[in-house]
Specification:
Layout (H helix, E strand, L loop, with lengths): L16 E3 L1 H9 L5 E6 L1 H5 L9 E3 L2 H5 L11 E5 L7 H7 L7 E5 L4 H13 L4 E5 L8 H7 L8 E4 L2 H10 L3 E5 L7 H5 L4 E6 L7 H5 L3 E3 L12 H14 L1
Parallel strand pairs: 2-3, 5-6, 5-9, 6-7, 8-9, 8-10
Antiparallel strand pairs: 1-4, 2-4
Length: about 250
């Protein structure tokens, strides 16, 4: 039961609710995604080509606001969906064995806004996918989908139980694991060379855990000004992905 004053962002059976045009239309376009219900204003729904079997409810803006967290920018569209089927790390690595796209590994990054933004950057720079630890990462949600702006449907997201073991598997697949941390002596550009890169990023505030650092081939930093202590993890991911793409 929802707490008083709390507006739930999930429907029955822990199905997440997505909101906003990019998140909802991307979910509708994804053949791997099952959309169970759709609510929308007549104006927002008029431009969509919807399957006839999809339950659709016309709703006013205020009614849609009750289906999602307070102040969520739903843009006239809310969808209830099934989570995507889980992907195995071995399948992702096997699928990308012949290309040089970078991989993103997140060590206990828990903020759904950050994970969504990283998914969006991963899609923008054509990353192979992202890897997170199952118990220390947000589930699929409207917040993640909104921040990802459609990339949740196109960027593979692998959840693993043991991140250290996953990093070993990533190394065996031929990736050079570069961990981003402010205390490294070399810059990220100096560390990446021309090999396949797995970019490892730590949690908001705490950074990478010691065990994660020991499972990196090299540690590197972004050459930021002394005026700021660090970058938001999603900003750091975007800069690192650009550096790999531009090398």
């Amino acid at each position: 039961m929802a707490r008083k004053g709390h507006r739930p962002s999930t429907g029955v059976a822990n199905r997440p609710r997505f909101w906003g045009r990019h998140a909802v239309t991307a979910a509708l376009a994804n053949e791997a995604r099952t959309v169970r219900k759709l609510w929308g204003t007549r104006e927002a729904l008029a431009s969509l080509n919807l399957p006839p079997i999809l339950p659709v409810t016309f709703a006013e803006v205020t009614d849609l606001g009750r289906l999602v967290p307070s102040d969520a920018p739903h843009q006239g569209l809310v969808a209830e969906v099934d989570p995507l089927e889980e992907m195995w790390l071995a399948d992702l690595l096997h699928a990308g064995r012949d290309d040089r796209r970078p991989l993103i590994v997140l060590d206990q990054v828990t903020d759904p806004h950050n994970v969504g933004a990283i998914l969006r950057s991963a899609a923008a720079f054509d990353a192979l996918g992202i890897v997170t630890q199952d118990r220390h990462a947000p589930p699929e949600s409207g917040t993640v989908a909104r921040a990802a702006s459609g990339a949740l449907e196109t960027t593979p997201w692998v959840r693993v139980v043991n991140l250290a073991r996953a990093l070993e598997e990533i190394a065996e697949a031929g990736f050079w694991r570069v961990g981003l941390t402010g205390h490294a002596s070399q810059t990220f550009a100096q560390a990446i060379g021309q090999q396949r890169i797995a970019i490892v990023l730590g949690a908001e505030g705490e950074g990478m855990r010691q065990n994660t650092e020991t499972h990196c081939d090299e540690l590197a930093r972004l050459p930021i000004s002394a005026k700021v202590e660090s970058l938001n993890v999603s900003n750091a991911a975007a800069i690192a992905l650009y550096a790999v793409a531009a090398r």
